[in-house]
Amino acid sequence: MSSYHSGLTGEELACAHLRGLGLRVMKTRYRADGGEIDIIAHDGDTLCFIEVKYRPEGRLGAGLASVDGDKRARMRRAAKVYLAQNAHPARWRFDTIEITRAGIWYALDAAKQW
Questions:
Q1: What CA–CA distance (Å, rounded) separates 73 from 56?
Q2: Which of 15, 34, 37, 57 is most exposed, with minimal Cβ within 10 Å?
Q3: Dihedral angle sign, alpha carbons of residues 26, 27, 30, 32
Q4: In b/e form, how buried is each residue of 47-78, taking b as 16+ CB within 10 angstroms?
Q5: CATH assignment at residue 77
Q6: How far apart are CA 114 and CA 109, in angstroms?
Q7: Contact 16/107 with Cβ under 8 angstroms?
Q8: DSSP code string of 58-99
Q9: pLDDT tens-digit profile of 7-61?
Q10: Residues with Cβ < 8 Å from 15, sequence gap 6 or more?
Q11: Entry pTM
């Protein structure tokens, strides 16, 4: 499976999991100049910009570690464009969802390093 198709599989699994948690998925694979966001969803009155890490052969925690400062900066740039172009609630956050052979882990406002 190509990395592109693997990424799609991970995003589909993530969307299903998020919906099961009660989030409303608004957009997937959002791209803006200088960055991208895997999933944009509403968690009640909070807008969530979500990075998906799909590591079917990896161990839990390895995917989260790969969301480095450069990746966070690209997501922030894309989020600024999205917020400028769309009506949105006053609250928003950056989350990470990691899918591994051990299961699914959803980190709200992951690591507070955004």
A1: 26
A2: 57
A3: negative
A4: bbbbbbbbbeebeeeebbeebeeeebebbebb
A5: 3.40.1350.10
A6: 8
A7: no
A8: S-TTHHHHT--HHHHHHHHHHHHHHHHHS---SEEEEEEEEE
A9: 678 899 999 999 999 999 999 999 998 899 999 999 999 999 999 999 877 666 6
A10: 25, 28, 39
A11: 0.86
Q: Are 76 and 35 in contact (CB under 8 A)?
A: yes
The three-state DSSP-derived secondary structure of 21-56 is CCCEEEEEEEEECCEEEEEEEEECCEEEEEEEEEEC
Range(s) of the domain holding residue 52: 3-112
Amino acid code (one letter) for 90: A
Q: What is the distance, to the nearest Å, from the Cα of residue 48 to the centroid of all Cα atoms in its chain?
A: 8
Residue 35 tokens, joined: 């960055």
